[in-house]
Design goal:
The protein is α/β, with parallel strands linked by helices. The protein has a single domain, classed as Alpha-Beta Barrel (TIM Barrel). 43% of the residues lie in helices and 10% in strands. Strands 1-2-3-4-5-6-7 form a seven-stranded parallel sheet. Helix 4 runs parallel beside helix 5 and helix 6 packs parallel to helix 7. 45% of the residues are buried.
Length: 327
Amino acid sequence: MFDSLKTTGTLGTAPKHQPKQLSAGAFNCFLTQPIPTIQTMKAHMLAFRKDAWTTLAGFTAMLKHAKSLGFSEIVVIPSIFGPELTKQDVAVIARATGVRLTTCGFRAKAPISPYTKAGVDPAIATFRQQFAWQTFFVNVGVGDPLVCGPVLDDWGAGTSAFRSQGLLDFGNELEGLGKEMGLTICAEIVNKDESGIRDPHVAIPGVIRKINSDKLRLHADVVHISMLTGMDNVIPFFRKHADIIGAIECGMPGRLAMSEVPEFGAIAHEFFELIEQNHPTIDPSVEQFDYHDVIQAFGLEKTYSNRRAGVQVLEDDARFLREHGCL
């Protein structure tokens, strides 16, 4: 199964969907048909039950299901993979299903805060190990040189150990890691219930601007921005920080389906058009959380109100996206 990988070091390149060209007739249907916008989008593995990240059979089924819904890429979190999933196996499955992979870095409640001198090196060592998955995916043709996630955050630790200078120092080290590994690192803003940073929607963009490197970009997620600033401020936030955004996620408040959040429905068409116009090279992702194996397992019941299987929410979102000309 792995002969071609072992002998050539490549699995070929999983094809990316090409945006459809808008025909002249499509403009004539503007009032009755959604204008095609974003054709290539990513699903997230946390929409699926735990067997999808711990068994080869579950991982294969996840990629096939996501592909059947129209998603040609999937965000994975290698730090919570089961031992059965190796880089080689995951890459072979991705190639076989025609799905590309993006690594999400994740580190929770660090023993030593990364905002201290003593805590920076262990944090960088952890991310070097996690991001090695993405460099492997790039080398074998099933991924792009980009990683995402709450990599500047001390997830779930609270803000008592937070220091602004420490965040900047940590950011500089992460930027250096991006250069070392040939990756663009996109740092996600998360909500106050989860973040170890005070005012993360202000602090993280501020640090990224100070460092001013194409190896450290912003990972902007609707769910967290809306929880921090209100849904009415999501589009203004995306406009303000358009020049530093490297990854975009369309999670919803409560981890609900898009159709269950009327405030998002009111801005959806404008939001998708904004992404298409300002970020044509970014493939946005959706991020649903399975209730049993994510929301309940990670103790997030007070933060997120969804009580359904994450796959059901993913399926609802796929329908919503198609209604808005995506996928």
